């Protein structure tokens, strides 16, 4: 089979984990599979880099100095564990030192300018993957593999929407195939950086936080891979985040639609954009655990085997605010909903959930907390006249709320789901602020106070999912 294997941050954090990742790739390569390996930065490294750049822009150089020291230590220690040969180690040490020099120079420029553009942020943020690439590649070589380490700026062509770039698939396909197919054909194992790409003019971009999963399926799509395997630190996609719900269980198979919905509504285990490039070519995705590589994990496919449950998993997104537009005269105002959402869209604010009471006396929608003030300002302006006429009484935000999403194919057609949710939360005395049924056929979303989110998650999980 032709496979793309992506390793997440915890699966490559430190020499021992890197060796483990290399062992996994090598084991499957020896079974005759042609494998492209994509790697994330070590956990926490991307956060450190982004914080360094932002602080530098605010006039603080101590943060990036300290970060450079820590990153040097961290990567050289991993290198020491991975490589025995002195001469090889020296070559790789120099490569790592050059990248960290680049990082220092970038942060110094940002500090001098006193501002960080999205383009500069990507140049810094992408260094985590670039730093680990030579170490993982060497770990595989140490096993006896022929390896080529490649930065994905050579493969993935993106638009110039820095920090959230999208791949231009035709160009990406052509470049990726030209570069990787000959290697795969002669038994070489390409190891590539996750998370980053480059514009047509070769300026480095990133695909959004957590975007290495997306790298996996972009490359899988470009190469017509048989499967994309995402190696992480849990046994696949589970019925809930196992960090919050200890009794969460692995879902053996879910559909592309369900996986997209789960990741969109907060299941961090897959980046939301990851599904589309795989679904387009019907490529199965597997989610596997590097800490328990024998576990079958989850398969994400077009038509999963039924597991007998309508509600399969539950997720949570925090740090949200609910905006409400209310007024007894709202029925008389034409096109309120259209005007509300046009106004919010004009501000480029993402709306996560919408609900309207049947009396049409209010419209509620949920946005990220950081967008709430901007949404209200824009709406106040848009509805100024209607407010003066008394048709709209109030536009307000309720902060510190969370959306819970119960996800599973077939929920829309199945009666009583909402009643069960109300029942489960009622038993625990948790108030539901609003609810949206069938925002897609896979999903029932409800809004609760953020402080009740974990308790609500556990209550619904124990009543409905398990
Ligand atoms: P990686 O570094 O491998 O990309 P992430 O930290 O991005 O890993 O994603 C894995 C984490 O996602 C898990 O450790 C888990 O806490 C979290 N998670 C959230 N929801 C789920 C879920 N439904 N199933 C599995 N893991 C989940
Ligand atoms: N290292 C990047 C991040 O932390 C990408 C990834 O891990 O998927 O966002
Ligand atoms: Mg991730």
Structure description:
- The protein has 466 residues and is an alpha/beta fold.
- It has a domain at 2-233: 3-Layer(aba) Sandwich (Carbamate kinase).
- Helices cover 42% and strands 21% of the residues.
- The strands form 3 sheets. Strands 3-4-2-1-7-9-10-8 form an 8-stranded mixed beta sheet, sandwiched between helices. Strands 12-13-11-14-16-15 form a 6-stranded antiparallel beta sheet.
- α7 links the parallel β3 (147-150) and β4.
- The mean pLDDT is 94.
Structural Rg: 24 Å
Largest sheet features: 8 strands, mixed
The helix-and-strand class reads: alpha/beta
Query: What overall geometry do the principal axes of the alpha carbons give?
Result: globular
CATH architectural category of the domain at 2-233: 3-Layer(aba) Sandwich
Name of the top-level CATH class of the domain at 2-233: Alpha Beta
DSSP strand count: 16
Strand content: 15-25%
Main-sheet strand order equals 3-4-2-1-7-9-10-8
Total of helices: 15
What level of helicity do the residues show?
A: 40-55%
CATH topology of the domain at 2-233: Carbamate kinase
Straight-line N-to-C gap: 35 Å
What's the CATH H-level superfamily name of the domain at 2-233? Acetylglutamate kinase-like
List of distinct ligands in this structure: adenosine-5'-diphosphate, aspartic acid, magnesium ion
Mean pLDDT across all amino acids: 94
Q: Which consecutive residue ranges, at least 5 long each, have pLDDT under 50?
A: none
């Amino acid at each position: 089979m032709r496979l793309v294997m992506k390793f997440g941050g915890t699966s490559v954090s430190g020499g021992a984990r890197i060796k483990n990742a290399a062992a996994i790739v090598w084991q499957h390569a020896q079974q005759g599979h042609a494998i492209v390996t994509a790697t994330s930065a070590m956990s926490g490294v991307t956060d450190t880099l982004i914080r360094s750049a932002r602080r530098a822009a605010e006039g603080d150089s101590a943060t990036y100095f300290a970060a450079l020291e820590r990153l040097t230590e961290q990567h050289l220690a991993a290198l020491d564990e991975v490589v025995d040969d002195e001469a090889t180690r020296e070559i790789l040490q120099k490569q790592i030192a050059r990248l960290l020099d680049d990082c220092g120079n970038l942060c110094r420029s940002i500090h001098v300018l006193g501002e960080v553009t999205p383009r500069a942020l990507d140049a810094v943020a992408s260094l985590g993957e670039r730093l680990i690439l030579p170490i993982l590649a060497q770990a595989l070589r140490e096993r006896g593999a022929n390896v080529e380490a490649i930065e994905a700026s050579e493969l993935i062509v993106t638009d110039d929407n820095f920090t959230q770039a999208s791949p231009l698939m035709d160009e990406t396909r052509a470049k990726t195939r030209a570069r990787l197919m000959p290697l795969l054909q002669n038994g070489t194992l390409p190891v590539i950086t996750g998370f980053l790409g480059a514009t047509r003019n070769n300026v480095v971009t990133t695909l959004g936080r957590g975007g290495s999963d997306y790298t996996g399926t972009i490359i899988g799509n470009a190469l017509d891979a048989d499967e994309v395997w995402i190696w992480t630190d849990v046994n696949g996609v589970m019925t809930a985040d196992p960090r919050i719900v200890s009794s969460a269980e692995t879902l053996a198979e879910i559909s592309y639609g369900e996986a997209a919905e789960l990741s969109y509504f907060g299941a961090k285990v897959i980046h939301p954009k990851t599904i589309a490039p795989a679904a387009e070519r019907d490529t199965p995705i597997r989610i596997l655990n590097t800490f328990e590589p024998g576990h079958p994990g989850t398969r994400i496919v077009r038509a999963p085997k039924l597991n007998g449950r309508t509600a399969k998993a539950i997720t949570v997104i925090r740090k949200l605010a609910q905006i409400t537009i209310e007024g007894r005269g709202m029925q008389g105002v034409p096109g309120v909903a259209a005007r509300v959402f046009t106004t919010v869209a004009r501000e480029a604010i993402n709306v996560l959930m919408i609900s309207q009471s049947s009396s049409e006396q209010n419209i509620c929608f949920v946005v990220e907390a950081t967008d709430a003030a901007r949404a209200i300002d824009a709406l106040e302006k848009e509805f100024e006249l209607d407010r003066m006429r008394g048709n709209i009484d109030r536009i307000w935000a309720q902060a510190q709320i969370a959306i819970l999403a119960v996800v599973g194919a077939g929920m829309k057609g199945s009666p009583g789901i909402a009643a069960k949710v109300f029942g489960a939360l009622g038993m625990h005395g948790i108030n539901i602020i609003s609810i949206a049924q069938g925002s897609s056929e896979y999903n029932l979303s409800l809004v609760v106070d953020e402080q009740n989110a974990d308790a609500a998650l556990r209550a619904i999980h124990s009543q409905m999912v398990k």
